Amino acid sequence: MAEAQSRATTHHYKIDPEFKHELMRVPGGESFKNCYQCGVCTATCPVARFTGTFRPNKIIHMAKLGIREVIKDDNVWLCVVCYSCREKCPQGVEVADVIRALKNMAVENGCIPAPFKELAAQILKSGSAYNIPESRIARRSTLGLPQLPKTNLEDLRKLAEVTHLDKVLKE
Ligand code: SF4
Ligand code: SF4
């Protein structure tokens, strides 16, 4: 039984020596090579504290080993870019930037979790991450708050076009 459980949780990954070179070419991805797996980033990370799966040191380790599947792992999308890890890393690894680089590689390979696709589509459509109710906008005046700035949707559309985000969202 114990052997069966152990088999069920074992993952077999293919090692791709080229992967780490690809990551190093993505802006922000370079510093991962200095990681020596002390685990301080994970001990510091507020997201790791409240999830059972997000472990920044494990993500960096997978990248170093050349495990390309790391960009298919939804966990890379859980980083909230608070930079707590960077403050504590004894090796100067820009953990959040490395994870951002992995997200960029994930996007290039069409690996975006559905909620993030919906969020991006909503921003392109309205300029906001969610539909702000008219009642809430009207309430700003009664509270003496300035009106919300208007987003230039045409600029957003052009940005999506030059970065190919528009195509990625249709995949
Ligand atoms: S704190 Fe730095 S050296 Fe330690 S595991 Fe995290 S990235 Fe690697
Ligand atoms: S930047 Fe990301 S990985 Fe680093 S501590 Fe914050 S949430 Fe965790």
Q: How confident overall, as mean pLDDT?
A: 91
CATH architecture of the largest domain: Orthogonal Bundle
- According to CATH, the homologous superfamily of the largest domain is Alpha-helical ferredoxin
- Major sheet, described briefly? none
Could you give the order of the helices and strands? HHHHHHHHHHH
- Count up the domains: 2
User: What percent of residues adopt helix (DSSP H or I)?
Assistant: 40-55%
Silhouette: globular
Distance between the termini: 42 Å
Bound molecules: iron/sulfur cluster
How many individual helices? 11
Q: Radius of gyration, rounded?
A: 20 Å
How much β-strand is present in the residues? under 5%
Q: Spans with pLDDT under 50 lasting ≥5 residues?
A: 1-6
Count of individual beta strands: 0
CATH top level of the largest domain is Mainly Alpha
The CATH topology name of the largest domain reads Fumarate Reductase Iron-sulfur Protein, Chain B, domain 2
Class from helix and strand fractions: mainly alpha
What's the quick description here?
With about 170 residues, the chain is an all-alpha fold.
Write the layout of secondary structure elements.
Layout: H1 2-8, H2 17-25, H3 40-44, H4 46-50, H5 56-65, H6 84-88, H7 95-108, H8 114-126, H9 134-142, H10 153-162, H11 165-170
This protein binds iron/sulfur cluster (2 copies).
